[in-house]
Amino acid sequence: MKIPRIVIAGTSSGVGKTTIATGIAYALKRRALKVQPFKCGPDYIDPGYLSIAAGRDCHNLDTWMLPEDHVKELFAYFNRTSDLAIIEGVMGLFDGHRASAGTSSTAHIAKVTDSPVILILNVAKMGQSAAALAYGFAHYDPDVKIAGIILNQVGSPSHLETVKGAIEQNCGIPVIGSLAKNAGLTLPERHLGLVPAVERNDNSGFLDQLGDLIESTIDLDRLIEIAGQAPEFYPPETPVLFPADPQPVRCRMAVAKDEAFNFYYQANIELLRAWGAEITYFSPVADTSLPAGTEGVYIGGGFPEVFLKELEDNTSMKESIKAAVAAGLPVYAECGGLMYLTQGIVDFEGQSHDMIGLLPGLCRMQGKLQRLGYTEAEVLKESPVAERGQQLRGHMFHWSHLDTPDENSAAYHVVEPKKQLEGFVLGPGNNLLASYLHLHFGSDARMAKHFVDRCARS
User: Fold this and answer.
1) Exposed/middle/buried for 292, CB within 10 Å: 0-12, 13-18, 19+?
2) First to last CA, the chain
3) Cβ contacts of residue 452 below 8 Å, gap of 6+?
């Protein structure tokens, strides 16, 4: 399978990977190329910018949460109609899971997908030392091919000449572009990272400005050439995550998607569709009820704490979701969705806002991060997405605190990194699952089918 592809990597977080990868995707789309974006690791916010820039949903690639063959299957599946794939890295090139020798690092994803790497160097405050840095990255792992370098935060034409010459002379790697210091192109941030693209309502022409800059400072023809030199890609011969044959529509699933709830692994949505779910979107902020004919509900993560008044005031939507749970419809909520289902959310100023009230206790925003990292959990109770005894891998990232569930209602026993009970399974027939744990349905081929099966029986 021929898939032109590149990985956009960095020496560390904060070197400009997302801005540059977003600009490259947009500039290539303006050339009428079908660009398929991917993001290494479990991030939700960066994929939003890449999706808008490329005009195609960005998908996460993660070799800690997913077996390598599952990553390969997803990569091939989502590249069926693309001209070129761009994989944005995470953190520094070789930074991965703390205890498993770089699993799910950008370098690991590059090796699994057999992709050439474009390395971004922030060269502010350095000259020829940038060549030593590039040399070290190029030789650290001989199985990772750094095929080009982009320099960021270049101070002047003479600065560029010094750094570019040192790298190309001492490393033998071409510098294919550079960006000067330009604070106006910095993406906005807040407590979970960048502000999601869906919230920006950006009418400032940011992408056009960024695309123009990339077009003028990065050799896109050379980048396309490097991507085209990637070897043949060999996905697994037999699909595991997707059904072997097309499935008929078996249920109608309502998925919360608006400015408050937009953290989803897009592969989850596509896997649900593939197993027979008709996906219909709704807004807990703006809509008055669940869509007609709903047979299951999926409420992902996001920033409900930023839209507390709107969520609190929308009593008809809260009652609609309550009624769905009472009627036995399968409902799955992750992180922000969990917060929405509690008795209420206490904001950063200590003010309480009433939420749906299906889960016990108040969810309180904290002044510091509560959990961040990969998580492995054992399923304690059968739920809309899993069976008792399954071992699941996912990710947690939240600033709020909710009291630990009791043994009668707990969804999971977390076994890594810290043993604890997590999440809730409640409702008639255990039809409600809510947890801080974000799950990628590609990690276990049973989950998407299980969810659709439960909805089809509701």
Assistant:
1) exposed
2) 40
3) 250, 251, 253, 272, 275, 276, 277, 296
Residue with tokens 């999971």: 412
Instruction: With both helix axes pointing from N to C terminus, report the angle between 17-30 and 45-54 in degrees, rounded to the nearest 10.
Output: 20
Residue type, 286: A
376 within 8 A of 391, measured Cβ to Cβ: yes
Residue 14 burial class via C-beta count within 10 angstroms: exposed 0-12, middle 13-18, buried 19 and up:
exposed
In the chain, which segments carry CATH 3.40.50.880?
A: 251-457
Task: Determine the Cα–Cα distance for residues 45 and 190; give it in Å rounded to an integer.
Answer: 11
- Taking the model in full, what pTM does it have? 0.93
Both tokens assigned to 256: 């919360």
Residue 229 CA: distances (Å) to CA of 3, 137, 222: 9, 21, 11
Helices and strands: H and E segment counts in the chain: 14, 25
Domain 5-228 grouped into CATH 3.40.50.300: yes
Neighbours of 31 (CB within 10 A): 13
Tens digits of pLDDT across the chain (458 residues): 999 999 999 999 999 999 999 999 999 999 999 999 999 999 888 899 999 999 999 999 999 999 999 999 999 999 999 999 999 999 999 998 766 667 889 999 999 999 999 999 999 999 999 999 999 999 999 999 999 999 999 999 999 999 999 999 999 999 999 999 875 566 655 444 455 555 555 545 889 999 999 999 999 999 999 999 999 999 999 999 999 999 999 999 999 999 999 999 999 999 999 999 999 999 999 999 999 999 999 999 999 999 999 999 999 999 999 999 999 999 999 999 999 999 999 999 999 999 999 999 999 998 776 677 899 999 999 999 999 999 999 999 878 989 878 888 999 999 988 889 999 999 999 999 999 999 999 999 999 999 999 999 98
Q: What is the 3-state secondary structure (H, E, C) of 119-166?
A: EEEECCCCCCHHHHHHHHHHHHCCCCCEEEEEEEEECCHHHHHHHHHH
CA 63 – CA 109 distance, rounded (Å): 7
2 Cα distance to chain centroid: 25
Q: Which CATH architecture group holds 251-457?
A: 3-Layer(aba) Sandwich (3.40)
Residues marked active site are found at 335
CATH 3.40.50.300 in the chain, residue ranges: 5-228
